[in-house]
Design goal:
This protein is mainly β. The protein has no helices and 12 strands. The strands form 2 sheets. Strands 1, 2, 3, 5, 8, 9 and 11 form a 7-stranded antiparallel beta sheet that branches. Strands 7-6-10-4-12 form a 5-stranded antiparallel beta sheet, with no helix packed on it. Strand 2 and strand 3 form a beta hairpin. The chain is elongated and about 70 Å long.
Length: 193
């Protein structure tokens, strides 16, 4: 065998079960691989909810009656948050249903930095049986979707906004206090896109 130059690849795997495969694409070459795993401590999430009362929505857990606070976003009003230093974020997203919607609610959530779209996340929700709106209302909350992001060093301003004009979602942002202890995360939902 002719040995080629080794390449180091770092893969960050979010929480959950995952299966990774390493193989040679052309089928004629052999791929030799070695793996090192660095286990992070279990995350300690601290929620960062926007302070603007007009966009804050209260949900109530059906079983425990615990109150959960989210920020409502749509195509006109998003959630803006600023990070300084490294950060590991968990974004919780729940689609909202109108009473006449009976199928799954699929929508696209845009993550923007300085007005440019960095990522588009497609989320799908069904009607939630775990939570209800604390104050009632015309909408029905959807099931939970989780997005995990590792934010690079430096100060960044990001915005989450719904790409679909007729849809809205509930969002909660949390950061892991255990993985990066020096980061600062601020949120604001008053700023329009």
């Amino acid at each position: 065998y002719k040995i080629s130059v080794a390449q180091k690849v770092k893969i960050i795997i979010p929480p959950g079960k995952h299966r990774l495969e390493v193989f040679a694409i052309n089928g004629q070459s052999s791929a030799f691989s070695k793996y090192y795993f660095e286990k992070y401590p279990n995350p300690k999430w601290e929620n960062k909810l926007p302070l603007a009362a007009e966009n804050t929505v209260s949900l109530s857990s059906v079983k425990s009656k615990k109150e959960l606070k989210y920020a409502r976003i749509d195509a006109n009003k998003g959630v803006i948050f600023i990070t300084a230093g490294n950060a590991y974020l968990r974004i919780l997203v729940r689609g909202e249903f109108y009473h006449n919607m009976f199928s799954d609610n699929e929508m696209r959530i845009l993550m923007k930095e300085n007005g440019k779209t960095l990522y588009t996340f497609k989320v799908s929700s069904t009607r939630s049986k775990q939570v209800v709106y604390a104050d009632g209302g015309k909408l029905i909350p959807g099931t939970l979707n989780k997005i995990f992001l590792e934010i690079p060093e430096g100060e960044h301003q990001y915005e989450f906004i719904v790409a679909d004009k007729s849809k809205s979602a509930l969002v909660k942002i949390a950061y892991d206090k255990q993985r990066f202890t020096t980061q600062k995360v601020k949120t604001n939902s008053n700023i329009k896109a």
